[in-house]
């Protein structure tokens, strides 16, 4: 689990340079990075919105460990 300061820094980088924030979080040769790059080229604000989505919300969906049941305590 990421600390609050780490998430804050990722969000700050995503606001300043959206593709860099996605690149640091997901990798450089991923679909998320390419989508963010295209959105940033077409318009800065859509790039920021997508980068924030990738950094904040996409991680929560896949945070379960592989093989672990969803209702384990």
From TrEMBL:
<keyword id="KW-0812">Transmembrane</keyword>
<dbReference type="InterPro" id="IPR000612">
    <property type="entry name" value="PMP3"/>
</dbReference>
<feature type="signal peptide">
    <location>
        <begin position="1"/>
        <end position="23"/>
    </location>
</feature>
<feature type="transmembrane region" description="Helical">
    <location>
        <begin position="31"/>
        <end position="56"/>
    </location>
</feature>
<keyword id="KW-0732">Signal</keyword>
<comment type="similarity">
    <text>Belongs to the UPF0057 (PMP3) family.</text>
</comment>
<keyword id="KW-1133">Transmembrane helix</keyword>
<dbReference type="Pfam" id="PF01679">
    <property type="entry name" value="Pmp3"/>
</dbReference>
<dbReference type="GO" id="GO:0016020">
    <property type="term" value="C:membrane"/>
</dbReference>
<protein>
    <submittedName>
        <fullName>Proteolipid membrane potential modulator</fullName>
    </submittedName>
</protein>
<keyword id="KW-0472">Membrane</keyword>
């Amino acid at each position: 689990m990421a600390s609050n300061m780490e998430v804050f820094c990722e969000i700050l980088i995503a606001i300043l340079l959206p593709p860099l924030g996605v690149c640091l979080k997901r990798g450089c040769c991923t679909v998320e990075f390419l989508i963010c790059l295209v959105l940033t080229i077409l318009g800065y604000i859509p790039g920021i919105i997508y980068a924030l989505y990738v950094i904040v919300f996409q991680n929560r969906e896949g945070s379960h460990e592989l093989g672990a049941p969803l209702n384990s305590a």
